[in-house]
Amino acid sequence: MTRASWAWILCEEEGAVTVDWVVLTAAVVSMGMIAGTIVWTNSGSVARNVSSYIGSQSVVTTF
Fold it and tell me: Alpha-carbon distance 46 to 35, whole Å?
């Protein structure tokens, strides 16, 4: 490509909004994946705690 064609590509603004939306969408998806990973890794210990608490409870069948 010649220097003039690169200048035209860099000055063109027709697809700028599309690029903005793609970058914003990628950022939102990445943040969602990070949040999901944090929740997923911490949910195992919470599930074990709930399981041990429920397992330690006794059922009273008489009043």
Answer: 16
